[in-house]
Amino acid sequence: MAAAGYRLTVRDGPRVEREDFPTLEGALSALERRTRALADSSRRDPVDLRLRKFEPAQQVAARTEVAGPGRWLPAVRGGVDVRGDGSLEAFVGGLRRKVIEQREGESAFAALRRELGAG
After folding, report:
1. Is residue 58 included in any domain, yes or no?
2. In a domain, 48, yes or no
3. Among 26-35, 91-100, 104-113, where is mean pLDDT lowest?
């Protein structure tokens, strides 16, 4: 594993996969490819907990995230959540995630690239 560079983390249910890339663009391209595949297969049913019901759009079915360079204090950290209805939502940040507002006609991936300065 490379100490410098960018790490892609893919969370799909209990499965977690990590892959390292030398460039941010390479990591973002892999993030987009993996996220599109997950969006096609991550549909969820509503979850009814008696007191509250979670619709598919309220559930995060999968998450792809890029961080780097470096491992402990990465300068770049952001990703895309795949919702239970198949919709995508880009975010930046680690523990404190901030949803990226998409501009008209902009995909979640383009919004992430814009926010990370890679577009």
Report:
1. yes
2. yes
3. 91-100
